[in-house]
Amino acid sequence: MTSASLASRPRGSTLAALSTCGLVLALGALIAAALLARPATEARRESGRALARELGLTDPALFGEARYTRHPSQADLASAFQDAPTGLDHFPAGSLVAAPRGFGTGHIGGGEE
Amino acid sequence: MGARFERQRHLLDFAVASLARRPAKNLGLTLVYALVVFLLGSVMLFGSAIRREAGVMLADAPEIVAQSMVMGRHDLATGADLEALKGLRGIRRVEPRLWGYLWDSAGAANYTVMVPSPSDAAHALASGEAIVGEGVARARKLAVGKPFFLVSPAGKFLRTRIKAILPQASALVSSDLVLVAEADFRSFFAIPADRYTDFAIEVANPREVSTIAEKASVRLPTYRFVTRADMHRTLEALFSWREGLALALLAASLLAFVILAFDKASGLSAEERREIGILKAIGWETSDVIRMKLWEGTAISGTAFLAGLLAAWVHVFFFSAGLFEPVLKGWSTLWPRFPLSPEVDALEIATLALLTVVPYTAAVVVPIWKTAVTDPDAVMR
Amino acid sequence: MIELTEVTKVYGEGRPDRVEAVRGVDLTIADRAVTVLEGPSGSGKTTLLTLIGCLARPTMGRIRLDGEIVSGLPEKFLTEVRRRTFGFVFQKFNLIRGMTALDNVMLPAFPLGVPHARLKAHARELLEHFGVGDRAGLGVENLSGGEAQRVAIARALINDPAVVIADEPTASLDGARVEQFLAMAADLKAQGKTVIITSHDPRITRASVVDARVAMADGRIVEATP
Fold it and tell me: What is the DSSP letter of C96?
């Protein structure tokens, strides 16, 4: 390396600061993009909210394979085999989604609050 | 400030040079670190985004849902009970609902078949018409105007024509819906005229929901009343539970990483020990060496954290958390295709930083301390 | 002026491999002079050098630096004294591989907070002064023995110490290089530095630039001239 190129060689701290800045800027750009997209996001969510209100929907449609995974806040507890908290479950989502609990007391205020 | 700043900057210079001198080791460590941040970050970002999404969309869910119970099982509600509820003070409106599940062997999927409320003009249906969710349309390759057939468990046939497909924007809550007219629903499932799946109750004063639910449960002791707060709490528990499970699984990888970091930090090579000896001999204090080593650690953890977070963000919000999909989806054929929108939550990012940076720092600090107190005369021997 | 009074250094006290490396040494080292500690390997001269250079503390006895007792100072202050007063040229030079000659020279000043540009200019000056200015940007592993020594000497001088300590400086140098080293020692003396060298090389110990000779054997001083 010649003296000239040595003089222009950046310091380690400069490199560290630059790479940190780069990463922070990239992250900042993503966050800014998210903030800019906010109105569109809100509008999309509002349309979903309106649909849920019109149809009286109570739960997300994430897992449709077992009955209790579609309406976990609504399904009845006592179905044999699949719906009991300790019941053997042949649906994979059953290992990820808890069987609903806290139902069946018949009135509000009797269970956990 | 000048001298102090210049001093720290020089120590950072040396730390960076020192990292660059062992590229394989440090790059490997940074990559593993970034991977851990990526995994944890993906779970957290995904979890919070989906919770937010569901939270907003279901904010206007029915205030109370009343279900008839027989021997502890969900049963059909009757018209007589509907009238009994309607008379209760504080209840503004009781909406009898008709919905149920249908296992469709052709699509190998569970549908939620539902009758839109008569007051819902947007989804009003004549007999023989159907509106389907985005997932159903995808699974059965449906388009507006096309015919759509359903077969009931009893073998009954329902022939409909698609009137509309629900927008993808709301897929998270509507993906598996099949909306049909009341007459079609009743004949298809053989439900008598004054029977309903359950009642959606609208109260006059939202603050009195629990009082009204209590009063209603006295009036109709065979019913159970699920309030909106109950539903949200259940969903929240469900999402937290799942996220917690994923995090618990990932905790093992975090632990493995901490062990790796400790091993890397404590297993200093002879070369590194020699270097620290030289630094101390030429006048660096123990605290200078430690500071320099901390800069090294900061450089690694800062880079890894930012890179991992960046990758997690892109993964979750640009690729819809593609890596988790197989796990989340399970056997769902109607997994909704819903867009996730980022929620910027400083607390969450701080939590992620805490979960990853603190264990790493803790793992490397002790070995650093031990090497930094090397006798400076070691280099002379 | 460095004064040693009944200085003893024991390694591995209480262990079977206990070594009494320096035993009851009394010695005075004059300022602005070249002093050579001579003796066969294992005679304790390198240990004595580490004690003088505040790299280690004596087990017993006292070391005074310009009248101030430094032998009992805690580590932090000892480092301070070392950094202010001494520059070291180690036997194997102990340059840090993977860094350039220039960076190596700047290294001792890193914790001092000297502005980077000034420090860099000073380091370059030193390298130029010792005739290795054109090697500044080279990784030290690419330097020859003689060049490495000059870089090491430049590094020893970066904080402008009053005392330069060189441990067996000619161990890895050929004949012509020894002359060059002696010239550098003379140069340092001319700059008003105190130079302390250990050596068992007669080309060094008998050199005309040397003002004082201290012969050691078995951890003791056997002869001191003048």
Answer: P
